[in-house]
Each structure stands twice: as C-alpha cells, then as structure tokens.
C-alpha cells in the first residue's frame, strides 16, 4: 500500500443547506479547489470525498455533501444520500448562515448516531451582532466557529477546533492484534490461495493483519493451509497466535494444537471494525433459525462473484447444512442495505475491511433497532462448522458472552 486506506482515515462530513458555503469552507480548509463553488443552489449533487493529510491529525477524508433542503424528486434522492453519509462520519461540520428546522433535525440525527459536531456559522461578514453564534451555543449542539470566506476569517480557528476534537475521536476501537500478542512473539497467518484470491496479491484484511504483526514487533509467518502442519513442526517454540482465513477454519482447527490460540481474520475484524460481543450474540442466533427464515448477507463492497463465492455460495451452503433446511437468503452489496429489516431473522455482514468503523457500527445499530441479530462472515462460518468456541478463545470478553448465552 502506498497510502493509508480510506477505512483507516478520520471521516469529516460537511453538512448544511444549499448555498450556505459548504464547498467554500472545504476549499478554504484544504487551500485548494476541491469542490465546485457556485451561486446556483444545489451545485453539489453527490457526496464529494477528498483524501488528504491534516496535520497533526494525520490521514483524513473530507466528505462534502448536497444541501439538506434540496427539493423535488431528484432533490429528495440527494438529501437521502446526504443523510446516508452520516453513517460513515466520525466528525461533522454543520455549516449554516441562519438556524432553521433543517439544522435542528440534522444535529438531532448526528447526536443520535453519536457523531460530534462543530457548527460553522459562515458568511460572518454579513453579520456583526453575534446573535446567531450565541443562539447556537445556547442549544449546546457543539462548538461554534464563525467564518467568512470573503474576508478569509475563521478558517484557522476551525482547523484548530477540528484538531482538538479529533484527539477524542477514536477511528478504530483497538489495533487488530491489541492484547493478543507481545513484543517478539511469532504469529502464523494461514492464507489459502484459491480462485477467489486476487492474482499476485493478498486480500486487504490479510495485508492489514500482516502489517499489524510487524508493527507489534512480532515475527510473521505466512503459509498456505497445506503447509501449516510442517510449519508448526519446524518452529522451536509454538506461535503466540494463529490467524486463518475463515474458509479454512475446519481444516486449520484440526491442525493447530488446542493450547495454541487460534482465530480468523474476519473475527479480528469483528472486534476492530464493529462490536465483537454483539456479533457473538448475533452468531448464536443461528441456533434458532429454521426452514424458510429470511437471512440477509451484506457485503461492504460490490464485486463480480467468482466460482465458489464466499457470500453467495459457501456461507449459504454451510449455514443451510447446519440448520438442516433451506433458508430464504438474500444478498445486498455495497450501499444496498434494506431500510426495513423486520422480515429478516439474521444479518450476516462481511468483514468490512474497506469501511471505517463508524459505518459498521451504524449498520449494527440499524439491526439493533429492528431487533434483528447481526454478525459477520467469520463468526458465522466458525459457528456453522463447529469451531465457534475455539475461534473466540483469544478474546476473554467474547468468551464470557458466549458461555453465558450457551447456558440458556
């Protein structure tokens, strides 16, 4: 990788009504013309992303969105996309030149999602009484910064406010291997090479885990599943951890001695990108599935299915084999996620290696509100193949949840 992936960057969303100066504020923050600026209302029609380094924050993604007061059939679609952008927003800039019901609704949505807000009162050169800023401060929605793009005022203060709040915003819950390995440990990564493996490279989850092993000052050994037994035999000391591709769980669990911690890349990502404990609960809902139940399999990215596709072929096969009956399985890719989940008995999400944690937590929250269990690929595979407890052993909190639910 030549640069930090978007999934590991702080996502800063810029929201507001049409023509309040959202794009102008973004261009001024970046000191470059990123978004088109025009006096015509509704110039920004789709979210515009700009990847950059914001020192001393580090790698960030600014997301410029369409106006929340857009009108007409197309306008409604643009507004829907704007509100959808909240799902991946770590920090929101709400730009306004007067406070209306639009801003009030927007801030309420951001608060519900737990997204910190900075209110940017733009066009300050047209006001001199400070009443707008005082009114918004009384609402206690977040810090208020007055800006004037015409007079080039307030942008430095806004940048400093972003820096201060960013220190309290955690993009990821933990490192991938946090609490699992120590300096000098050996970690074995089991990476099957099959028709789904990208030619000449590894998939992103495997690359990120390999990098984390090196960052932890550990020794990484990457092997195919057919070389695992020989590798373990050749090691003078057992590895501190074995991480396998979920599809090889059954074979690898038979090869790795019970006293060596074993888990999967996707299980690591359940903790890293989402909430492992809630996903463990979701996976255990598999026990309650019966023939005809609707199950949603959700992918973060769209891709062309190849051969034995993990989400469309393998997981449905393993799941239905475990249940012992046919399930009604649907697949949603990319942004296609049903607004109404009430008909589903379970949502199974991919590892979301290309998403930030905020997006995954948003989907978990949607499922929670619909009272639908939510889990991910790796946990589903481990449960279906009978190696669930083994895959959870490295995680004390997840094991506690599992044992408590298993007693019921």
UniProtKB/TrEMBL annotation:
Residues in G domain copies: 11-123
Could you provide one GO biological process annotation from this protein's UniProt record? tRNA methylation
Note the InterPro entries from the entry: FeFe-hyd_GTPase_HydF, GTP-bd, HydF_dimer, HydF_tetramer, P-loop_NTPase, Small_GTP-bd
- Which positions fall inside the Hydrogen maturase F dimerization domain? 176-274
Q: Which GO terms describe its molecular function?
A: GTP binding
The Hydrogen maturase F tetramerization domain, residue ranges: 279-394
GO CC annotations? cytoplasm
Signal peptide range: none
Q: Which PANTHER family does the UniProt record give? A: TRANSLATION INITIATION FACTOR IF-2, TRNA MODIFICATION GTPASE GTPBP3
Q: What is this protein called?
A: GTP-binding protein EngA
